[in-house]
Design brief:
Blueprint: H1 8-28, H2 34-58, H3 62-87, H4 101-112, H5 115-143, H6 147-174
Helix pairs in contact: 1-4, 1-5, 2-3, 2-4, 2-5, 3-6, 4-5, 5-6
Length: 176
């Protein structure tokens, strides 16, 4: 495991996560082509699964643990649904094999967060990530160029909106 960041470094990590989240949210609103949607949906889903795994290992807070477990269940289901949608449409784009550098960095920041700041960092990242994901799925459900993926986006939106609401609640409860 990476060394934990403290003091000014943890503030820098937090600021980088926030800036990255704002950038991601802005970019997500413009995703109307299938390639961009699949890339961002798959990377976001992988990030959620990996972040939840870190949370399950690190948190002592039952609310965070329960939320992380829900993320594992729901995002495994979302991955299966995306895989199924892509397999039944031969013209579908491929999913990326790895996280992008922004999400890898966010996971590193989670791993490096001091224990006393971990829950707040995880909750804040989840709030930002779900704002971005909801924006991505809303945009694609409205203006997407691939009927099967557009249906997938519409089907996933209620669950993602529930995640966003719960993430915002946890973020407000864990702020320092």
């Amino acid at each position: 495991m990476a060394d934990k960041h403290t003091g000014p470094m943890t503030m820098v990590d937090k600021a980088m996560d926030k800036i990255g989240g704002m950038f991601g949210k802005a970019k997500a609103g413009a995703a109307s082509d299938a390639d961009t949607f699949v890339e961002n949906a798959a990377i976001g889903n992988r990030y959620e699964l990996e972040a939840a795994d870190i949370a399950m290992r690190r948190t002592q807070d039952a609310r965070i643990r329960e939320f992380a477990q829900k993320m594992v269940e729901d995002h495994q289901h979302a991955k299966a649904q995306l895989d199924s949608t892509l397999s039944t449409h031969p013209d579908s784009p491929n999913q990326p094999d790895a996280l992008d550098s922004r999400r890898r960095s966010m996971l590193e920041h989670l791993e490096q967060a001091p224990d006393e700041e971990f829950d707040a960092r995880y909750a804040e990242q989840q709030d930002l990530a779900h704002q971005e994901t909801v924006k991505l799925f809303e945009s694609y459900a409205e203006d997407g160029d691939h009927a099967g993926l557009q249906r997938f986006a519409k089907q996933m939106l209620p669950t993602l909106q529930q995640h966003q609401s719960k993430a915002q609640e946890l973020h407000s409860q864990t702020k320092h």
